[in-house]
Write a structure and sequence with these properties.
Layout: H1 4-30, E1 42-45, H2 52-64, E2 75-85, H3 90-93, E3 98-104, E4 116-119, H4 125-151, H5 155-176, E5 182-189, H6 191-198, E6 203-208, E7 218-221
Parallel strand pairs: 1-7
Antiparallel strand pairs: 2-5, 2-6, 3-4, 3-5
Helix pairs in contact: 4-5
Length: about 290
């Protein structure tokens, strides 16, 4: 009789273990699969130092080779412009395709300015709103740079801060005025729509990107409108601009976006990106 309680206890423990094991397997079976795109980076555009004519030719060839019987939802593509475009000019320029993001920079004369990516659901309202947000941030940057300049004892360091403040103030004024600053866009369309887009004035290239899955894991490097030979960071040789000066004659904050799916552009949530160009770095740096 003395052994009976121990036998009952052992049996009970085995039963509990079996229940827990079964529950664990059920939990693992019901658990959703992990996101296989985490850690992957998609690069779309031209690499720094590559010849721009070669990139344009390759993009045209890829566009021509798109199969007509593609996805009904269409193919993503990076559209590069031959000139900087104001928000009001985007609806007509990009009509007929869904727009997910635009790429912009304030083209201040002789200055490297930050390249930003603005999410789009509606044109041009979302671009205008995104520019206003960038302008507010640039105002804060200008104030911070002025404060640092005031506290800097070294003359060279002080001049650097003062120049940074002037550039940030110029960017803020340009974006707040709704400048012609957009020079590329991420769009989605069927091959016929993308080919029609490539033939429009001010569209420089349409590079298909069927491999694009997540905008927040994508590096975009469209060629700058003013560059014709080799892709490189913007020149930084001019005097510090006054507020509001832009270079419209010259024809990465990191953006975070949700996974890209077959949804319409209106379902793309807001996001934000700092280009490495802003610091003179490698435009192919890993995003966000």
């Amino acid at each position: 009789m003395a052994r009976r309680p121990r036998l009952i206890t052992s049996a009970a423990l085995l039963a509990v273990a079996a229940v827990l094991l079964t529950a664990g397997w059920a939990s693992r079976r019901d658990r959703p699969a992990g996101d296989r795109t985490v850690g992957e980076v998609t690069r779309v555009g031209i690499a720094s130092g590559d010849p721009i004519p070669g990139y344009l030719s390759a993009a045209a060839a890829e566009l021509a080779a798109l199969p007509a019987a593609g996805s009904p939802a269409g193919t993503y593509a990076l559209v590069s412009f031959s000139a900087y475009v104001a928000p009001g000019g985007l609806p007509a320029l990009l009509d007929g395709v869904s727009v997910a993001e635009v790429v912009a920079r304030a083209p201040l004369p002789g200055r490297q300015t930050e390249i930003v990516r603005l999410p789009v659901g509606w044109l041009p309202q979302d671009v205008t709103a995104g520019m206003a947000g960038v302008a507010d941030r640039k105002d804060r940057e200008a104030a911070d740079q002025r404060a640092r300049a005031a506290g800097a004892a070294d003359p060279e360091l002080r001049r650097g801060y003062e120049t940074g403040a002037q550039v940030a103030a110029g960017e803020a004024a340009a974006y707040r005025a709704g400048c012609a600053c957009v020079y590329a866009a991420v769009v989605r369309g069927v091959p016929e729509e993308l080919r029609a887009l490539a033939g429009r004035p001010r569209v420089r290239a349409v590079e298909p990107a069927p491999e694009l899955r997540r905008l927040d894991r994508t590096v975009l490097t469209p060629p700058l409108p003013e560059q014709r030979d080799v892709a490189r960071p913007p020149a930084d040789t001019g005097p510090a601009p006054g507020a509001g000066e832009t270079s419209e004659a010259a024809p990465k904050v990191v953006v975070s976006s949700p996974p890209v799916g077959p949804a319409s552009a209106g379902e793309i949530a807001p996001s934000a990106a700092t280009s490495p160009y802003a610091a003179g770095g490698d435009p192919e740096a890993v995003p966000r």
